[in-house]
Amino acid sequence: MNSILITGCNRGLGLGLVKALVKLPKPPQHLFATCRNKDQAKDLLNLAAQNSNIHVMEIDLRNYDSHDNLVKQIDDITGGYGLNLLFNNAGISPKSTRINMTKAEDIMNTLETNTVVPIMLAKACLPLLKKASKSQESLDLCVQRAAVINMSSMLGSIEMNETGGLYAYRTSKAALNAATKSLSIDLLPHNILCVALHPGWVRTEMGGKNAPLEVDPTTAEIIDTIMKFKAKHNGGFYQYNGDKLPW
Fold this sequence. Notes:
The chain is of the alpha/beta class.
């Protein structure tokens, strides 16, 4: 792939994905990694200092007016080639879980970050994705041509919900899944793949200390999995290891 944009790369899964990509035998020529505050992204900046293909982009993605400037920077750096992959990874999970502790503000903030931002960023990046897709007409539908991967969660699966609670997080990820399905239909004429991905329960700041999976091996497996996505995966909901999940 020539270019990849990953959101939320200051820590956790986002940082892990960047590390996994630069370790590939053929890493992307341009790896755009966003963070809200560079002062809080020391590890990412250190990694970028060692790898010239990493471009750290400081942006608050909830400022929708800033999306066009991000797109222009990517277009300028890639020389008009476009963007092969948009990986909407950034997300939040409020501490409130049960209905008696749920706050409207938590729900609204979580929906905006986990659902609205990925939709609006995909919209902004569409011209870049179209350019990349058109330049790779010899390839079938795949991540190497043009794709949007939305980091979802099995907690967004309505069918798998057997414990309740987590109102803000569950609803935001279920809504993201619905958006991913619509994107997969709307962008198919442009040969752009769209998939919702559950990363597993990973030991990050969000996942907590009790999570069974570690960041580095899991993000490496995520990259291996998405590289295998094809037309049959379009509009689907999959786990980090490629297993299909129910809606």
